Amino acid sequence: MGKIFLEGMVLQAGLIFALGPQNIFVLESGLKRHYHLTVSLVCFLCDLVLIMLGTAGAATFFNQFPQIKILVGLLGVGFLVLYGIGKIRHRDQSLLALEENGNRSCYRAAITSSVIFSVVNPHAYLDGIVLIGGYSSKYGDLYQRLMLGWGAASFSLIWFLLLSIGASFMVPLFNSERKIRLMMTAAGIVLLILSVKLSQDVVGWITEIYPESVAAIRRPWGRHL
User: Fold this and answer.
1) Where in the chain are the domains?
2) What is the pLDDT of residue 174?
3) What is the pTM of this model?
4) Alpha-carbon torsion 73, 79, 85, 90, what sign?
């Protein structure tokens, strides 16, 4: 079973290293020390739930109803655009306040934002449910599949902790309003780029599921080109 556990860790390592909204949020929480350990734990728990659902057989459900993937993708695009613009305008600071304030509502906001970034993220479903869940189907025994999922989720916990704690040590590098603004703008631009990429993915999913409808829409435009 130890071999299957390590196999899950390696599988998740290949998926989670890619830059995404969840990683950006964890990194930012560490830089601002916005309850970064809580953020890491909540993101891990969300990944754990999705991965375990996938290994338990939810991947089959998503394959049977791909429309759900499109809906989640559209929600993800809207969320990334709004949040990215908010960062560029530097107006999203009310979402989380500095940990030193001890504001309980900010603590709840940190948890809520962590859940949103983990759940309103189509790639979390693709990675946790479809890819890892689909990969685990090679094992016929449920216990083996769950062990693979637990290995994958364990790497998520290690990665989020390293990301947030490592970022917290970089706080002295962002000791001015100008540097913070540059960081926020860069994060906003990355989020907008990710929204464009996700939009392309959603169009691809729609084309794959409804090829005839997409062809009918494109046909009149082709006559004018």
Assistant:
1) 2-223
2) 64
3) 0.74
4) negative
